[in-house]
Structures are given as structure tokens and as C-alpha cells.
Amino acid sequence: MSTKFLLVTLPFLAYANWYSPIDIEISTASLKCPAYKCATSSISIANNACGNYTSSTYYLKPCSSTTTTPLCNTTSLLCTAASPASILQSYPGEPCTTLSDCKYGTCIRNVCVGQKLTQSCTVHDQCDPGLRCSAGGLCSYQYKVGENGCRDFKDCVNWAGCNATTSSAVGVCVQYASVPNGQTVTDCTNGSSNLCITGACVKTGTWFGTIGICKEASISTVNLPLACSKDTDCLGTDGINIQISKCSCGYNGNGQSYCHPFIGDSVGVSLISTWVNALKNSGNCNTSRRATYECMKVAGYFEETLTS
Ligand SMILES: *[C@@H]1O[C@H](CO)[C@@H](O)[C@H](O)[C@H]1NC(C)=O
Ligand SMILES: *[C@@H]1O[C@H](CO)[C@@H](O)[C@H](O)[C@H]1NC(C)=O
Ligand SMILES: *[C@@H]1O[C@H](CO)[C@@H](O)[C@H](O)[C@H]1NC(C)=O
Ligand SMILES: *[C@@H]1O[C@H](CO)[C@@H](O)[C@H](O)[C@H]1NC(C)=O
Ligand SMILES: *[C@@H]1O[C@H](CO)[C@@H](O)[C@H](O)[C@H]1NC(C)=O
Hints:
Blueprint (H helix, E strand, L loop, with lengths): L1 E6 L14 E6 L7 E4 L12 E4 L2 E4 L10 E3 L4 E3 L25 E3 L2 E3 L17 E3 L5 E3 L6 E3 L9 E4 L7 E5 L8 E2 L15 E3 L8 E3 L4 E2 L6 E2 L6 E3 L4 E3 L2 E3 L7 E3 L6 H15 L12 H7 L2 H4 L3
This protein binds 2-acetamido-2-deoxy-beta-D-glucopyranose (5 copies).
């Protein structure tokens, strides 16, 4: 038995998924979660393994850091080698040791260097941090907050989005999480907006589009953290209607699951302000890479923005 509700979760890590509510089946069945415990000497674990899954419990032990297989794969429960860093190539502004580490440009003093101001480009990614690829195909300065002319968020400084409808040619760069309730934004998708101060919006108009009005965010009506067994234990409100969040397995010794907060709960509010603060300090990240973990590492905000 399950019923369909609009579920609002916390924003995910990647920029594209910020504040995305997910319209999914909400289960009314009780969750069954595995437990996670440290392995004791009575649990048998093979030499190349880091865990043993027995009677719904993961018994874990660290892999030896001095071997060639220092990482625990928590799916296979085997000790594995660290993945070679060069599989994901660096963008301009990101670390490198050789030319082949860089997706674009060259590697100079351990940093990938891309196209500079007024040099030619076809995509934003080729340009150095602080620059965008203009419609004319030249690396140009990103538009500042309040400047007119953007076509998408990558045209704006790293802490602003482009308030423009897809049908209109250009828009104005607006700082993330700055637009008060009641004002219009053009990035309202599934009830979420990066431009609204609360992260929440309601779509206006009946046509397909992303124009909406900033509104109060949903909050939990239960005290968090709340141990739950099913989604319908996790109640909240948007001020008008009852909202249901998600009950998810935790990583703990007794297999307990907990309710996800809503974006309007205090942890959600602080997550938004942490991200805006991090983005304001991400000037060394190129425009397409804002809010990726690679950028957060360069900016020194990796730990702060890591939420899972
Ligand atoms: C909005 O929700 C729909 C339905 O769940 C989903 O398919 C779509 O990817 C979501 N859009 C965004 C931008 O998250
Ligand atoms: C897991 O531990 C149990 C108890 O020590 C043991 O019987 C079992 O063989 C172990 N399984 C694996 C895959 O090592
Ligand atoms: C971990 O193990 C699973 C199952 O064997 C495998 O599919 C997955 O690719 C592994 N993950 C990594 C990061 O190696
Ligand atoms: C800068 O932009 C380029 C191209 O857009 C990208 O490949 C690179 O990773 C970016 N650098 C940073 C530090 O984000
Ligand atoms: C965003 O664009 C819409 C449509 O042009 C406009 O009505 C609204 O005032 C703009 N909002 C901001 C914060 O600039």
C-alpha cells in the first residue's frame, strides 16, 4: 500500500539538485534497516575484506592504510585500491600534476589554466575562474549581482543565478537565496528556487514554465531528530497543507531510521546560508563548477558543505 504525496527533502549536494522536492511514492510500510557495528574478534572477516553482513547487521573493520587496498567498498565489503584521481579531469582553476590531468588548457604550477580574458571559447568550461564564455565566443568577466545581460547562471558570479525566462533573451543576475517572499523569480521548479531566500516558491500561471513566487518553506511539525518507521511518521506543514517528508535508514548500531528535515527547518536554513557563504568564497572556481565538490575543495569549503 502506498499513496502519492509531494515530498520535500533537503537539498542535495550538487547544484542542480538544490532544494528539489521529489514527487515519489510515499510508503506506509515500516522500514527495515540494517544495523552497523564495529566487528569484534568473534566475527570472521577475510584478510582482503572489511566487513561481514550477518543477520541484518554490517560488522565493519578498517582496511589497512599501509596496503595497496586502503579503502573499504561498503557494497562488496572488500578492501579496494583508491581510484586513480586522473579519471576525473580537472577544470581550469583545479589541481593538476601533468597536462593530461587538465580537461582544458595547460597545467601550470599544479593548477589547470584555461582561456583568459578576451581569448576565444566555445563553452564556459574553457575559461579561467571569474570568466564566462560570451555569446560572441570570448572569455569575458562574469556579470555581477544586479547586472543585466545573463542567459543562464553561468554568466553570473558564482553566488548568483540568472533571473530570466527561457523565452526571454537576457536577464539580471540575482544573488542566491536573496529574494523575499511574495516576489517573482524565474527559476521555480518543483516548488524550489535557488533565488528565493527560503529556497521555496509556488509556480504562477498555468503554462509550462518556471516563473513562481517566493514563499515560506515547509517545516516539520514533529520534533527533530525523530526516530520513525515509515514516511507518514514524518509530518510537516507549508503553512496550509500537511506535508510528508521521508523516513530513511541511518547508519547506527540498532538499525534505527530517522525523518528527513524540510528545507525550512533550522538545519535546512543553515544549509542554505552555508552554501551561499561558500559560493561567495569560490572565486577560484570556474563558473560551471560552482557548487561541485571539486570546487568546494579548491575554495576550502569541502567539509562544511558535505552533507552525507
Ligand atoms: C521535478 O519533479 C519531476 C517529477 O518527480 C522530476 O521528474 C523532475 O526531474 C524534477 N525536476 C527537477 C528540475 O528537479
Ligand atoms: C561472518 O561471520 C560469521 C560469524 O563469525 C561467520 O560464520 C561467517 O562465515 C562470516 N561470513 C563471511 C563471509 O566471512
Ligand atoms: C563496490 O562493489 C560493488 C559490488 O561489487 C561494485 O559494483 C562497485 O563498483 C564497487 N565500488 C567501487 C567504488 O569500486
Ligand atoms: C573552470 O572552468 C573550466 C571550464 O569551464 C572547468 O573545466 C574547471 O574545472 C573550472 N575550474 C574550477 C576550479 O572550477
Ligand atoms: C525576475 O524576473 C521576473 C520576470 O521578468 C520579474 O517579474 C521579477 O521581478 C524578477 N525578480 C527579481 C528578483 O529580479
